[in-house]
TrEMBL record:
<dbReference type="InterPro" id="IPR024765">
    <property type="entry name" value="TOBE-like"/>
</dbReference>
<dbReference type="InterPro" id="IPR003439">
    <property type="entry name" value="ABC_transporter-like_ATP-bd"/>
</dbReference>
<dbReference type="InterPro" id="IPR005666">
    <property type="entry name" value="Sulph_transpt1"/>
</dbReference>
<dbReference type="Pfam" id="PF17850">
    <property type="entry name" value="CysA_C_terminal"/>
</dbReference>
<keyword id="KW-0472">Membrane</keyword>
<dbReference type="InterPro" id="IPR008995">
    <property type="entry name" value="Mo/tungstate-bd_C_term_dom"/>
</dbReference>
<keyword id="KW-0764">Sulfate transport</keyword>
<dbReference type="InterPro" id="IPR003593">
    <property type="entry name" value="AAA+_ATPase"/>
</dbReference>
<dbReference type="InterPro" id="IPR027417">
    <property type="entry name" value="P-loop_NTPase"/>
</dbReference>
<dbReference type="GO" id="GO:0005524">
    <property type="term" value="F:ATP binding"/>
</dbReference>
<dbReference type="Pfam" id="PF12857">
    <property type="entry name" value="TOBE_3"/>
</dbReference>
<dbReference type="GO" id="GO:0015419">
    <property type="term" value="F:ABC-type sulfate transporter activity"/>
</dbReference>
<protein>
    <submittedName>
        <fullName>Sulfate ABC transporter ATP-binding protein</fullName>
    </submittedName>
</protein>
<keyword id="KW-1278">Translocase</keyword>
<dbReference type="InterPro" id="IPR041193">
    <property type="entry name" value="CysA_C"/>
</dbReference>
<keyword id="KW-0067">ATP-binding</keyword>
<keyword id="KW-0547">Nucleotide-binding</keyword>
Length: 350
């Protein structure tokens, strides 16, 4: 089912949690809502689920207005970070719950429920555990039960709010891979909330970057990483260096270097300008090769394995930044702490 969020505004008392948010989720896509804590991700998910009502705007499923429908009518499956399973019920009964509580007309037979639950247990790779209780499972297994329970009622879409947030790194990585396979198998529309950029990049077809109740950018992982729309997205998606300079007569001056810009309107005066470069895009040289460089001193060398990280200090401004080199490049340059190097600025983004 496709989901469309149209100009949603949502406030709690006098605090606006979402400002005029719009979003389109095509049928069958796995979409990540990515943003720091407090950016409005959970609020947006709850609005789509029907657990909250917006003051303004609409939510459409397959083009049909669902803004005033209640949770049940929307037929979505929801899994939260701490989705408490029923502790006094077996795994079987937990998964069967949504089917067993249906009214007589729509309730499957006992045999049908049994078959459905066992096929779900196979799907989430927990067959054989039907008669255990939640306390007898690991955290990762419990979240898979929560997913099976959400899937039991054949939802039209799935909403997952940091479903792996409480688990340790290794289990999270396994569950990510597992969720991706599950999505491929089911072809269900899934909206997935995370504050972890790596998780979003690894899992999603599309990433929606949120900040302070607004959508900053929507794009594929590749687009948002390589073509961030603004400084917030740039710095939220990974380590980034800032190179400060000045704009004068339509040119940015940064150390000895000069860059042409399209900022024709900035003629006749001087303004600060900031260039961005990811550490792995920083190129180190032992001599100046053209005019676009700054000189820097190596403060510290960290051997991270296949990658070497340099902490550098600009000689002109004293600003600190980082470079990441392959081990091979590092050895070729024969770099030492305290030595002075040239840093190319050709791939600086403004
Ligand atoms: P996220 O999931 O991205 O961390 P939330 O959607 O939970 O963000 O919250 C967004 C903002 O709205 C936060 O500043 C939060 O404090 C506020 N907020 C969320 N729920 C409520 C509520 N029920 N009452 C008042 N403020 C709330
Ligand atoms: Mg949240």
């Amino acid at each position: 089912m496709s989901i469309e969020v149209v100009n949603i505004t949502k406030s709690y008392k006098n605090f606006t949690a979402l400002h005029n948010v719009s979003l389109q989720i095509p049928e069958g896509e796995l979409v990540a809502l990515l943003g720091p804590s407090g950016s409005g991700k959970t609020t947006l998910l709850r609005l789509i689920a029907g657990l909250e009502q917006p003051e303004e705007g609409a939510i459409l499923f397959h083009g049909e207005d669902n803004t005033n429908r209640d949770v049940r009518e929307r037929q979505g499956g929801v899994v939260f970070q701490h989705y408490a399973l029923f502790r006094h019920m077996t795994i079987f009964d937990n998964i069967a719950f949504g089917l067993a509580v249906r009214n007589r007309k729509t309730r499957p037979t006992k045999q049908e429920i049994k078959e459905r639950v066992h096929s779900l247990l196979r799907l989430v790779q927990l067959d054989g555990l039907a008669h255990r209780y939640p306390s007898q499972l690991s955290g990762g297994q419990r979240q898979r039960v929560a997913l099976a329970r959400a899937l039991a009622v054949e939802p039209k879409f799935l909403l997952l709010d940091e479903p792996f947030g409480a688990l340790d790194t290794k289990v999270r990585q396994e569950l990510r891979r597992w969720l991706r396979h599950l999505h491929e198998k089911l072809g269900l529309t899934i909206l997935f909330v995370t504050h972890d950029q790596e998780e979003a990049m690894e899992l999603a077809d599309q990433v929606v970057v949120m900040n302070e109740g607004r959508v900053e950018q929507v794009g594929s992982p590749e687009e948002i990483y390589n073509h961030p729309a603004n400084p917030f997205v740039y710095s939220f998606l990974g380590r980034v260096n800032l190179f400060r300079g000045r704009v004068r007569d339509g040119k940015v001056r940064l150390g000895e270097a000069e860059f042409d810009t399209e900022w024709e309107n900035l003629r006749g005066g001087e303004w600060p300008a900031v260039g961005y470069m990811r550490p792995h895009d920083v190129e180190i040289a032992l001599a100046a090769q053209d005019s676009k460089f700054v000189q820097a001193q190596i403060q510290h060398i960290s051997l991270l394995g296949p990658i070497i990280r340099l902490d550098l200090k600009r000689l002109d401004t004293g600003e600190l930044f980082e470079a990441e080199l392959t081990r091979q490049r590092f050895c070729e340059l024969d770099l030492q702490e305290k030595s002075t190097v040239f840093v190319k600025l050709n791939n600086l983004a403004f």
